[in-house]
Every structure is written in structure tokens, then in C-alpha cells.
Design goal:
The chain is mostly helical. 68% of the residues lie in helices and 0% in strands. It has ten helices and no strands. Helix 1 crosses helix 3. The protein is elongated, with a radius of gyration of 17 Å.
Length: 157
Amino acid sequence: MTLGRRIREARIRQQLTQKDVVGEYMTRNMLSKIENGSATPSVKTLKYLAEALSVPVGYFVNEEAYDTPELRGNLNEIGLLADRILGGGRAEPLALCVKARALLAGGGPEAAKAVLDGCDPEAFGTEERRHIYAALEECCKALDDYKTAYEYACKRI
């Protein structure tokens, strides 16, 4: 995973906009370039971003440190709990979203999207649809399919 993608994912996980993160330190355009990989941040900027996103600087530079058996185990457990909720009958949209987000956090955007592709968001209420479209948007971003991510974002709004 690229540095820019890790920064973007940390920002989105905190539910922050680019403008929220940059404050007076840098321009939103510069953060966008960093997230898209067309600019490389300085160490000072990485420290600023880590503080703004409430993560250690190592999160951006040492991917292996955050891909631990414990984390994978927790994500697997979350996925199994979602499977139990989903067991039998009509698929519960929030359980689908939990399972998809657990798979997404574990580095499996294809599997996460496959979980959600099996449901029809229009069959659910407004709030459930919003959650499904938000999860689908995140999956598409992780797959670098920004056109489809944008389409899901528009449906979510």
C-alpha cells in the first residue's frame, strides 16, 4: 500500500475531510497530491499528518508493524460475528457492512466488495442504503476505482 493511500485511509477512518486535516499547515491541494502519490511529504509534514490523524508516524512508514496476527485475528473475529448475524434469512445490511469493513481493513478489498455486491441497497431503508453505499465507496477507493467510488458517493448523499 502506498504512503498516500495510508494517509487517505487514516483520514477517512477519522471521518475527516482534507480541509479538516490541513488546517493552516498546508494547502488542501498539497494533501491531495500527497494522497494521490504525485508529491512526497517531508518528515515534518509526516509528523504533522500523524498528529492530525491521531496515528503514530510509524503507521505511515512501517506497514508490517500494523499488519499483526492479533489485528488479523480481531478482524477475522469481527467477520465471523458478522457471519453469525447474517446466518439464515434476509441479509442484515449493517452486518454486511461490518463484515465488508473488517475484510477491507484486513487488506481484502475484493472480498469486501464481493460481500456487498451480493445485496441490493435499494431493498433497504435510507439509513441502511447510506451505510452500504459508503462501504462500497471505500471498497472501490481501495481498488483504485475512483469513478465507481464517486458514483456510490453520489448515491449515498
